[in-house]
Amino acid sequence: MLRTDVTVIGAGPAGLFAAFYVGMRDLTVRILDPLPEPGGQLMALYPEKYIYDIAGFPKILAKDLVNNLVEQLEPFKPVYTLGERAEKLEEVDGDFHITTSSGNTYVTGAVIIAAGVGAFEPRKVGCAGEAEFTGRGVYYAVKSKAEFAGKRVLIVGGGDSAADWTLGLKDIADVTLIHRREQFRAHAATVNQMIAAAEADEVRILTPYELKEVRGDERVREVVIFNNATKEETVMGVDAVVILAGYLSKLGPLATWGLEMEGNKKIKVLDGTMRTSRPGIFACGDVASYAGKLPLICLGFGEASIAANYAAAYAHPELKVNPGHSSERDESPTPAPAH
Ligand SMILES: Cc1cc2nc3c(=O)[nH]c(=O)nc-3n(C[C@H](O)[C@H](O)[C@H](O)COP(=O)(O)OP(=O)(O)OC[C@H]3O[C@@H](n4cnc5c(N)ncnc54)[C@H](O)[C@@H]3O)c2cc1C
Asked: Its quaternary structure (predicted)?
């Protein structure tokens, strides 16, 4: 089995940038993630939203930022192990052995945990037909706006994603939003825009309404919704149901790796080197906790570069921690040999 110098757990922005920096040190790197594609929260939850606080980019779509990170990392030929969740960690002869949900074991000299908010899954409504039609008209994210063009779309939820996509789809689709409460959790400005759109007949907003059933044949054809105050039921013809009711996340197995934790979702880093309480294991991005921490992508990038350089020096003690300036390198970095 191919051993890599460093293994990064989590292919979100922090993990991708950490892997890039490991590559810059001419070391080999594996990236593990249970999701089918890299990008973490950005691809899973908001690929088509603009991000405005990435240094050097006045604005950038979340999916474009991920594509750029993947492209920046590509010259180093990282080993992507997608669709597998890191579950078990053992130390054997100075190496770490990581066993995944698929039963595979990967060997590595140092570990960087960039697991974000943990392996996450969208919160389900739990109504009849929801599971049956998932992938056949029931969605938990808008990955491509084009997919909804010209369709009758029911959006379920009252937070930022539900409000953003009610506005985001209104110009290309026939949108109805239902929310189980009268009050929305989304930003006030977005809620006001949404209400204005409803007053202009550009979207329909129904509160306090809930989803009772999804029906169809090969695909979703209609839903039953109900007013939870009056219990009155309505049958509506729809082509797509987009459930944006937040997501559940848990660190799961990583929380049992004997690392010092902050609550049950964050891993404590002991100092500015991003080391955790277990030598050879570093953390960065949303999962890493320290005094003054802010869960922002821009900070995750900084933490990733620190974690990667210390992890590189841990895996190869002959390396200096300080990488020097990238501008002094050749223009096209060459991949490190696999060993
Ligand atoms: C709607 C929305 C809008 C946002 N807008 C902004 C913004 O404008 N600016 C900003 O700075 N931030 C924003 N954020 C926050 C930002 O997305 C996060 O700070 C960022 O994604 C954290 O990156 P990360 O790499 O640490 O973790 P994540 O993006 O969460 O990625 C972690 C990855 O680790 C994987 N993982 C978890 N457990 C395991 C395991 N056991 N084994 C293997 N892999 C595992 C997960 O599957 C995931 O892919 C927003 C978040 C949301 C939800």
From this structure: Homodimer.
